[in-house]
Amino acid sequence: MPMTSHERLMAAYRKQVPDRVPVRVWAVDDRTQPIHPSYAPIVEAAREKTDLVGGWGGGPRREMLCRVTHEERPSRIAEFEERVTTIHTPAGPLTRVDVFNRSGKPGYCMKHLIESPEDAKRWLSIPFGPLQGEVSGFFERVREMGDRGVIMSGVSHPMYAVQDRLGPEGFAFWSIDERPLLHEMIQRELEMTLEYLRYILERGVGPLFAYVGPEVCIPPSQSVRDFEDFVVHYDRQWIELIHEFGGIVWCHCHGNTKAVLEGFIRAGNDVLQPLEPPPWGDIELRDIKRQVGRRMALEGNLEKHEMYTSTPSEIRERVRQAILDAGEGGGFVLCPSAGLQEWPTCDEQTVANFLAYIDAGREYGKYPLSREW
Q1: CB-based contacts of 92: which residues, under 8 Å, 6+ apart?
Q2: What is the mean pLDDT of the chain?
Q3: Biggest alpha carbon distance in the chain?
Q4: CA–CA gap between residue 77 and residue 129 (Å, rounded)
Q5: Rounded to whole angstroms, how far apart are CA atoms 366 and 373?
Q6: Which residues touch 181 (CB under 8 Å, ≥6 apart)?
Q7: Is the predicted pLDDT of residue 371 greater than 80, yes or no?
Q8: 213-242 mean pLDDT
Q9: pLDDT at 372 over 70
Q10: In this structure, what is the dihedral angle of CA atoms 149, 373, 367, 279, given to the nearest 10 degrees?
């Protein structure tokens, strides 16, 4: 009997064999609406024909027990303004400066929150109140989604939270010059992540949990040793807690994963995404499947760039090959490497490629897989 999308995704994430390979269009779920009419054909096809994954990140929060002020001021960059956020910590002020554009152009961080060891000590001096809040929104999302898909609960990644406050350059330098201080900051984030997870797990949230962040701590940005020290060591602890409650952990990591695949498994990850093919990544999908086996489910491996530049026939062939490379034995979900509506409008070529991707995934992914297409 055909499975529902919920059953199909859960089987794949549990490293089992569903009725067919699940097909996702990342960033399209049961609530998604097109941001421009040009996206409508893709959104409509995805909501009708694919297996949907929604997210939940609300619920309990802890209050920062110090004053936070915001200021907006002109920028020297034409068409942009600056937003200054100041946290008045017990050990002194911390300031972050972001530039933004009121017409919707992308902004960026001009000054990161932490730039010196003194700043780090100010951050560590911040007191936080207890976790408070309801988890009822999670159960509402589950009911809303129904059998059309699954809901993943977001997890704050300890290393990534620290890297965000330092910026990539600051994190890289501190991994050499201030390594003990980095560990102290990540340990604090871990403790808050563990407290948050226990709070929601004990109230029935689950079984799917998702996080992003390890991609900023893999080669060539950081070494394999850094990945072990700052990612595997800390992630293993909060992932074990999720597993104690029967949960499943889904991890998103762009880039070169060849040297750290075993690290993801040692940390306890159940699903790895997006498995980018060369030249965006550094290992072919068939080699990932051969190495990982049934120890971890896989999700990918259509590079988003291909959806912009290929032809529909080329996309169909990429889908066919991805399913042959990783679909045997189950535990595989087909998905592009990034979200959908990341440009203001969508051209006809991209629309045609996404529609070809959806149809090919449903056609080629039926179990038992055939090599005679």
Answers
A1: 118, 122
A2: 96
A3: 68
A4: 38
A5: 12
A6: 117, 120, 174
A7: no
A8: 97
A9: no
A10: -60
Position 102 confidence tier, pLDDT thresholds 50, 70, 90: confident
- Answer yes or no: are the C-beta atoms of 121 and 158 closer than 8 Å: no
Q: For residues 255 and 275, give the distance between their C-alpha atoms in angstroms, rounded to a whole number.
A: 8
* Burial of 20 (C-beta count, 10 Å sphere; 0-12/13-18/19+): buried
**Phi, psi at 141, each rounded to 5°:** -65, -40
Q: Which two tokens stand for residue 170?
A: 């600051």
User: Looking at this protein, which amino acid is placed at residue 254?
Assistant: H
Rounded to an integer, what distance in angstroms lies between the CA atom of residue 254 and that of residue 290? 20
Strand partners, 354: none
Cα 361 from Cα 335, distance rounded (Å): 9
Residue type, 55: G
Model's pTM, two decimal places? 0.95
Residue 69: what pLDDT?
A: 97
Gap between the Cα atoms of 250 and 253, Å rounded? 10
272: tokens are 């790895």
CB 12, CB 330: distance < 8 Å: yes
Question: Are the C-beta atoms of 101 and 107 separated by less than 8 Å?
Answer: yes
Collapse the DSSP code of 145 into the 3-class scheme (helix H, G, I; strand E, B; otherwise coil) and give the result: helix
Say how many residues make up the chain: 373
The confidence score (pLDDT) of residue 103 equals: 82
Cis peptide before 130 (omega within 30 of 0): no
The 3-state DSSP class for residue 99 equals strand
pLDDT of 370 over the 80 cut: no
Tokens at 105, concatenated? 């152009």
Alpha-carbon distance of 186 to 18, in angstroms, equals 38
